[in-house]
Design brief:
661 residues, alpha+beta, seven-stranded antiparallel sheet, 22 helices, globular
Length: 661
């Protein structure tokens, strides 16, 4: 009884001396103190002193009681110099090996920074087949830059836009940096291959007037534009078509990042280039939040979220981007489109927003969005639950859906991912090791949970203290019905914050001949378990057919979002590619087979990543021929000269043109 605390009706596996299950009481604090504390929670995966700090270019006094919109402009340009050119995130952050052969997380930006992960190497060797003594060094920047062709220059276009931008560059490294997103295939090519086509010029507009001038000139002089937000696309959406002969412009929106807050109407005007963490920092000054937190929150932008119909981890409280968006502005070759009325609901025919949402840079450049904002939550509490089997966990998720009892975030990971998460635990004290051993004995010995069957759910509760307390009681009561044991807030917090570091693991894998990727879908409630099981089986069979057997591929899944009628599901897979003939082609074909299985089982082509060129081959299967014809008709009407010629979703592609690279 001194080690475990009993919270009816479930057993807590968290030591009562280490942390508390209940949400903290909010004491009398100044408004600034409350905002600072809440923002720190929102951004706590970043180190409070070393995280990327936006440069405040202009500001106004914070006046929450005023109904007048206020504005500021943020800049994250200085962070670009700190980014990896051939991998995810910051140059100083990532999983490395120390002199003792232990894996640790380098840098000072994240909460895990500096931590040794004593169990990760053993897991990687045993489960994933990664040999840390075998390195697969990437090529140097000069190796790939020598393959970047001289830029095509449309002089008439360049004369027409003179003075209508903040910056312009024909530099080969800038052009290469803006030629890709972050699919596994693109990063593989950065490390060991080359790109068949890159943009000819990178142009940074600083205002919507700049964008309108550039788009008009491109339309007049037959130039291609590919809009660029945070560069986090995982659908090949940013990679130029290899057979495009016109001049290609990459148009990053990062200089367009102004934010205006309207407290009385609970809205914010946010330019397309504003990045997630900067948006939250600015809104927190007014005690507000957007609540949209995708995995790429540090780098992805408002424009990219709208362009891909993005989803965030806390959507159960704040909604997906389509729920948050009131109006967006898009500059097209035939004019600028925006819904001027920001009333809470309108009935004026088909919603213009729906043509902009998910447009993936194929109709124009999204320049800004007016969105709903909410007060920062009073209480912010993590939690976790251990289930005896994945099937039990799925039944728990279905019950949450039926009763509309889901907290801000709830994610169920399968056994493979559960064990993987345990391998990412940092080194702990001797006392903590003893405590963990007792917990393990309780779960596996006393309760009889099998180590190879167990799974877990991580939780985040947000709201008032009373709301959070009530939600916790109900959620844990439902979990008890399906054999769930409360794992405590520490495990929940660690699981939630690891989300922001997973992409760094792919780079560690690449360093040791391991190629990996994640992809997502959404499925009906009755199909979720079948989809998880059969897609993993299909990946293993597809890998075996290509000789990837010893070691077999690593495959796992997690149920990440709850809806009234179903769920979003993420899959992770990877394999050792040393000795595999044409690893990139093998990987791509396995990925296609996995998606084909999803479609066969009634799943969606994408839940929130979008289509790009990577999934464009299946658009007709996803929305039908009539649906594709409708989108093509819209494309021809809005962009008759195919200025926005990235060919995402197959739109604007010449008959028979290849969408793959």
């Amino acid at each position: 009884s001194r080690v475990f605390r009993y919270n009816r009706p479930t057993m807590s596996l968290e030591s009562s001396s280490m942390s508390e299950q209940v949400s903290e009481h909010i004491f009398a604090e100044s408004r600034d103190e409350v905002a600072a504390r809440r923002l720190n929670r929102t951004l706590q995966h970043l180190s409070p002193t070393e995280g990327p700090q936006p440069e405040l270019l202009s500001s106004v006094p914070c006046a929450a009681s005023s109904s007048a919109p206020t504005a500021s402009s943020l800049s994250w340009a200085k962070n670009l110099d700190n980014l990896k050119w051939n991998g995810w995130g910051y140059k100083d952050s990532g999983f490395l090996m120390n002199d003792k052969g232990q894996v640790y997380f380098a840098g000072k930006r994240y909460e895990l920074a500096g931590s040794v992960l004593p169990h990760f190497r053993g897991w990687a060797e045993k489960v994933a087949g990664v040999d840390p003594t075998k390195m697969s060094p990437p090529q140097q920047p000069e190796d790939i830059l020598r393959h970047v062709a001289s830029p095509i220059k449309n002089e008439a276009f360049l004369r027409a836009i003179n003075g209508q931008y903040a910056e312009i560059s024909f530099d080969a490294s800038e052009r290469l940096f803006h030629a890709h997103g972050h699919t596994c295939q693109e990063i593989y090519k950065l490390r060991w291959g080359k790109f068949g086509r890159v943009p000819d010029v990178v142009i940074w507009p600083a205002s919507s007037d700049h964008v309108e001038a550039i788009v008009a000139a491109a339309n007049a002089h037959n130039v291609v534009i590919i809009p660029y937000g945070g560069g986090t696309s995982v659908t090949d959406a940013l990679e130029p078509p290899v057979d495009e002969t016109r001049m290609i412009v990459s148009l990053p929106t990062k200089r367009m990042n102004k934010i205006r807050v309207d407290i009385e109407n609970m809205t914010a005007f946010i330019e397309a280039g504003a990045v997630g963490v900067d948006i939250e920092r600015e809104l927190s000054k007014y005690g507000m939040t957007l609540g949209h937190e995708p995995d790429s929150h540090e780098f992805s932008s408002m424009g990219g979220w709208v362009a891909t119909r993005a989803s965030g981890m806390r959507k159960n409280v704040y909604g997906n981007i389509e729920d948050i968006l009131l109006s967006a502005t898009i500059v097209t070759p035939t004019g600028t489109i925006s819904r001027p009325c920001h009333a809470p609901r309108i009935s004026t025919g088909p919603d213009v927003n729906e043509f902009i949402l998910g447009s993936e840079g194929m109709l124009g450049v999204i320049t800004d969005a007016t969105v709903k904002i909410k007060p920062l939550p009073e209480a912010h509490v993590y939690g976790s639950i251990v289930f005896p089997t994945f099937e039990a966990g799925v039944q728990f998720m279905k019950e949450l859906s039926r009763r509309r009892a889901a907290p801000a975030s709830v994610r169920l990971v399968d056994n493979e991912q559960f064990i993987f998460a345990q391998a990412l635990k940092p080194g702990v004290s001797t006392f903590r090791q003893m405590l963990d051993a007792v917990k393990k004995w309780y779960v596996t010995g006393y309760k009889g949970y099998a180590v190879n069957d167990m799974c877990a759910a991580t939780l985040l509760f947000e709201g008032t203290k009373e709301q959070v307390d009530a939600e916790q009681k109900l959620v844990y009561k439902i979990a008890h019905t399906y054999g769930g044991l409360v794992g405590g807030p520490e495990n929940g917090k660690r699981g939630y914050l690891l989300t922001f570091l997973i992409a760094y693991l792919r780079d560690y894998g690449f360093d040791h001949f391991f190629v990996s990727e994640s992809f997502e879908t959404s499925v009906k409630a009755k199909d979720v378990l079948q989809v998880c099981v059969r897609v993993k089986e299909r990946i293993r069979k597809a890998a075996a057919a290509r000789g990837i057997v010893h070691p077999p591929p690593f495959v796992s899944s997690r149920v990440t979002q709850i809806y009234d009628t179903g769920f979003a599901v993420y899959f992770y897979f990877g394999f050792v590619f040393a000795g595999v003939k044409d690893p990139l082609e093998a990987f791509s074909q396995i990925e296609v087979e996995a998606r084909d299985e999803i479609l066969k089982l009634g799943g969606s082509l994408s839940h929130h990543h979008g289509v790009g060129k990577l999934r464009a081959y299946a658009m007709e299967d996803a929305i039908g021929k009539a649906g594709v014809d409708m989108l093509q008709g819209l494309k021809r009407t809005i962009d008759p000269k195919n200025v926005f010629g990235a060919r995402n979703m197959g739109l604007g592609a010449p008959p028979g043109a290849s969408l793959h690279h």
